[in-house]
Amino acid sequence: MDSFGNLAANLLERCTGTGKERAAQLEKLYFENAKKLKDVRNLESAEICQKADIVGLTTTGAAKQRALLNHLKPKIVVVEEAAEVLESHVVCALSTSCQQLVLIGDHQQLRPPVTVYKLAKDYFLDVSLFERLIKNGMEPCVLGVQHRMRPEIARLIVPSIYPTLENHSSVLEYPDVRGMASNVFFLAHTEQEVEDNEGKSHLNPYEVDLSLALARHLIMQGYTPEQITILTTYSGQLLHFFKVRRSHSAVQSVRISVVDNFQGEENDIIILSLVRSNVDENIGFLRIENRICVALSRAKHGFYMIGNMQNLQGKSRLWNGISRILDNDGQIGPDFGLRCDVHGVVTQAHKVTDFPPEGGCMNKCSSKMPCGHICPKMCHADDRDHALVKCQELCTRFCPVGHPCPKKCFAVCNPCVKRMIPECGHEVDLPCSTEPTRALCKKMCASELPCGHLCKKKCCEPCNQADCVEPLTTIKVNLCGHHVTLSCKDFHEATLDCEHLCKGTCGECFNGRVHRACDEKCGRSLVCGHICNVNCGISCPPCGLKCQYSCSHSKCGHKCCEPCTPCKEKCPWSCQHKTCTKKCGDPCNRSRCDEPCKKTLPCGHFCAGLCGEICPPLCRVCDKEKLTEFIMLGNEDEEDAKFVFLPDCGHCIEVEAMDKWMDTDGGGQIQQKCCPRCKTPIKVCMRYGDIIKNVYGDIAKAKMKIFQSKGNPLEFSNHCSAKLTRCRKIVRKCEELVNSTLGAINKNLDAIEQQRVRISTREYQAASRELDRFEYVRAYFVLQSTPSFPVLGASSPENELIQRLLMKNIRVLENEQKVELRAAMETLGVKLKTGLGITDKERREIVQALGMGQGHWFKCPNGHIYAIGDCGGASVESRCNECQARIGGTGHRLLGDNRLAGEMDGAARPAWPQ
Ligand SMILES: Nc1ncnc2c1ncn2[C@@H]1O[C@H](COP(=O)(O)OP(=O)(O)OP(=O)(O)O)[C@@H](O)[C@H]1O
Description:
Number of strands: 28
Keywords: Cytoplasm, Immunity, Metal-binding, Zinc, Zinc-finger
Bound molecules: adenosine-5'-triphosphate
Subcellular location: Cytoplasm
GO molecular function: helicase activity; RNA binding; zinc ion binding
Protein name: RZ-type domain-containing protein
Main location: cytoplasm
């Protein structure tokens, strides 16, 4: 075991030894290569620097770059701030090539920092080469004019530190510090310093708070944070500054530094916190004049010191002298003087709360702002033109049409304000200059439609019952003076004129006044005999089937609705007794021949037919039963009864009865003659050729009439439009009514625009009724527009009746209602203007509105005007609404004491002759 242990130890030693050896070799190699690399880099730097006229280095850098300096061989070496550089550092920067050494510095400012205090104190290691040369009698070149400080600041160090330093003219023109009563001030206090946490430095919280408050005050005067530097003499105070500053947003960018680090630098305004203040009157570093010199010579425009001058002047000759200078000029005291140019006052401040919050003074600003209001803020140093103030007063401006702006003064006057629309009561945003009309209201309407449902459209859209899509519910109408409740269903279950049920909704059918078109199949028999197969709602159009007319020569090839072309062949109606000499298509010029046919049938019996006609296929004897099974109460039972054969259906009809049947007048009705037995139209039968031709002639005329009838959409459209235009003018005010009526009529006009070739009689009638109603409304508006209406008409029973029967009646106007309306209007017209007494325009409008021809206007024995409708003939007696005198008459005879009122319509005689 021992031998194994020895072996292991031996091996380990050998291995370790080998490793150490190798490591040493590598280390040596590394250093050699590192040196080579350094040399190469130096060479590279030297190459670059060689091309430069001036090469700048720190003294530490120069000591490190000895090789570079040796390579560059600088002949002139300039050392800036040489009084603050250790002599050894300057020596390191020199090389054998140096021919001139220029030292720039101020030995009266801070000396080079020395880490070991004893070396500085006992061996003067902190004395720079610069200072030593001067102290040893070398004559320096001294700058005699300073360009930095205003004289008020310079006099703190001249002549006490620099006996002959003069001020350059440029520093005499520096502006006064804004917001301060003095450009230089020493705030003298006795607030005690405290030691920092580690007991190595000192801090004075009072000075920290006051310095930051002063810095903020100066920033509010418009200085940038970069123009202000806070200097302090202790690092403990510096750290406390940093700590407290965190809660002072305005001063975050203000530089805070210890004096020693600010040598060689300057700023427009310096705040100096001297820190030391204690009962022992120990002023520490503040005794060192070099440091005082640096601290007092950094400010250009304004210099503010905070410290315990009592302590300082007692322990320092220099501070004592400074105190006296300051005292002489009133620049030392317990408070900073903060000047307010706005109010011309100086606020004394020795604690944070003394500083005016807005940088001015403790008064209210009270300046007049550009808007004309008085600034309500505390006196503020910034924003003196009040460009950023948001004035909270009410705006005093007016819009172009004179509405006051309701916003606050600072807000941009918005041309839009909330406006109430009188018609609907909604409030909308509208420019003042825009008239608030309902057409601009985008809110939901919610007005009640005549059917009782609420309008579901936007307020700006016209209410139209035609758009009502409500399901069947109850509605209210004021139809007869009673307030009744009807179901919308009542309208929808209406039976149309065509006898089909209406399938429309409440809105679609305008409360039953204008039903939607019936979409059932028509099924009516047309004049031509064909069955109409189009929708029921459309009036029967001209028949499109093939014409059934034929003669012995040809069949008509036209459409049924088109007129037939008369046959030009010779009329074939001829027998041994009579002959027609006309053309086949013209009326015949011979009469019927009543002679029996002389032909003998194959059975041996005589033919039962007539001379010149087609022989009946049945024998009077052999087929008697069959021949006489259809009895028309003619001579069927007679032995010599003669029969007419009708080729269209094959029936044989006794001639005397048949003649009567054919000669019977249709009562003005145009219809084809047909077989009395089977109703088949008779198109071919020479005996009745004349009648057949005449009927076809009548049918052709009827076809033409259908083409030109009132069903002509274009004519109908023009008729409606003309009437509407006339009515619209006067009832424009009554939007709802106009829209409702227009809706009903436009429905028909729309149909026409959709290229409808026909409109039904019912549609025509409905639209005409609506136009009629509209005319009544127009007449009513004429009366309403008379000046005396509000006093004499509005509360009259006639007006009430018109309102009830016309304006509030959503149903079809019945004829009796029209009569009542006319009478009420006449009476009302008379009441409003006794005699005629109306303007000529009004007279014309009334006459036109009632739409009667000339000669319908009469007057009672006392001269009160009334009208008689229909034919104009008096058919009923009544009483004058004005004077109760008898008016009208009976049997188309006017009462003797009543007269024609030709002054109304210019009629010379009554419409119904008396
Ligand atoms: N000839 C000049 N003309 C105008 N301004 C000058 C001139 N010389 C110096 N100044 C201005 O004077 C101020 C002080 O100059 P500079 O910092 O060079 O002096 P300094 O002697 O280095 O000061 P310190 O050592 O006390 O910091 C600077 O604001 C500088 O711009």
